[in-house]
């Protein structure tokens, strides 16, 4: 089995998304890793030209690592709706436009479902995907992925989280990600022998922590 490279010291969170940054900082908190964002450092956002979430995460992580000389952690994630052939998928952020208008993006998801005749009791299955990549300045990288399955609902409910959270209801819950607290959504009880996580990003982070992090 290939050994994972440990992540210690200072790391760049390769994102300009405030919601993602907050979640990653909270997840890294118990491990004594100092996190600074690409936005704080004034780093440009590289073009995401990959064909998979993992490829786009790697593009962002390697760009930040090369520029700063520090390890960089990047997430690329998205909402995949079964009845829309996996859309918005890689274009999850693009559907919100330059202004990051996610209420409009959620409205577009609903319109596309309605065009296909998908009513409230139709096939609204969906899942979130998160690909986390850590890249080092020497080009080494580690990849971790997580998924959470559920359905999209209309109208959106809740004001917690960000992005499409208010329209995604995970399996086994009667509330959307927008109605769950941050602790419920991605909190991890590290005191348990086998910690569990709900959100796609937290599930990917569990794998990352097991492979590359040590408790502070």
From TrEMBL:
This protein's source sits in the domain of life called Bacteria
Top EC class, one word: hydrolase
Q: Enumerate the Pfam families for this protein.
A: Ham1p_like (PF01725)
- A biological process term (GO) from this entry: purine nucleoside triphosphate catabolic process
A GO molecular function for this record? dITP diphosphatase activity
User: Might you give the EC number(s) for this enzyme?
Assistant: 3.6.1.66
Cellular-component GO terms for this entry = cytosol
> Which reaction(s) does the protein catalyse, per the Swiss-Prot or TrEMBL entry?
XTP + H2O = XMP + diphosphate + H(+); dITP + H2O = dIMP + diphosphate + H(+); ITP + H2O = IMP + diphosphate + H(+)
Its required cofactor(s), as named, are: Mg(2+)
- Claim: Glycosyltransferase is one of the keywords in the record: no
Residues bound to substrate:
15-20, 77, 162-165, 185, 200-201
Q: Which UniProt keywords apply?
A: Hydrolase, Magnesium, Metal-binding, Nucleotide metabolism, Nucleotide-binding
InterPro entries found in the cross-reference section? dITP/XTP_pyrophosphatase, ITPase-like_fam, RdgB/HAM1
Q: Where are the transmembrane segments?
A: none
Name the job this protein performs: Pyrophosphatase that catalyzes the hydrolysis of nucleoside triphosphates to their monophosphate derivatives, with a high preference for the non-canonical purine nucleotides XTP (xanthosine triphosphate), dITP (deoxyinosine triphosphate) and ITP. Seems to function as a house-cleaning enzyme that removes non-canonical purine nucleotides from the nucleotide pool, thus preventing their incorporation into DNA/RNA and avoiding chromosomal lesions.
The family database entries (HAMAP family) matched by this protein are listed as: Non_canon_purine_NTPase
The record's family statement is: Belongs to the HAM1 NTPase family.
Subunit relationships: Homodimer.
Q: What is this protein called?
A: dITP/XTP pyrophosphatase
What species was this sequence derived from?
Microvirga aerophila
* Lineage of the organism: Bacteria, Pseudomonadati, Pseudomonadota, Alphaproteobacteria, Hyphomicrobiales
């Amino acid at each position: 089995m290939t050994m994972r490279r440990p992540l210690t010291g200072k790391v760049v969170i390769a994102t300009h998304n405030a919601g993602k940054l907050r979640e990653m900082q909270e997840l890294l908190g118990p491990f004594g890793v100092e996190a600074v964002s690409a936005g704080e450092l004034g780093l440009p956002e590289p073009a995401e030209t990959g064909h998979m979430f993992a490829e786009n995460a790697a593009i962002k992580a390697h760009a930040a690592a090369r520029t700063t000389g520090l390890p960089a952690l990047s997430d690329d994630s998205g909402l995949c709706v079964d009845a829309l052939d996996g859309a918005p998928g890689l274009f999850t952020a693009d559907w919100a436009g330059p202004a990051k208008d996610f209420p409009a993006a959620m409205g577009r998801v609903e319109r596309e479902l309605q065009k296909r005749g998908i009513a409230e009791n139709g096939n609204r299955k969906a899942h979130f995907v998160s690909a986390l990549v850590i890249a080092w300045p020497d080009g080494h990288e580690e990849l971790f992925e997580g998924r959470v399955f559920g359905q999209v609902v209309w109208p959106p409910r809740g004001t917690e989280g960000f992005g499409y959270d208010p329209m995604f209801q995970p399996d086994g819950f009667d509330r959307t990600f927008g109605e769950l607290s941050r602790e419920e959504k991605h909190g991890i009880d590290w005191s348990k022998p086998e910690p569990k996580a709900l959100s796609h990003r937290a599930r990917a982070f569990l794998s990352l922590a097991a492979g590359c992090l040590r408790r502070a």
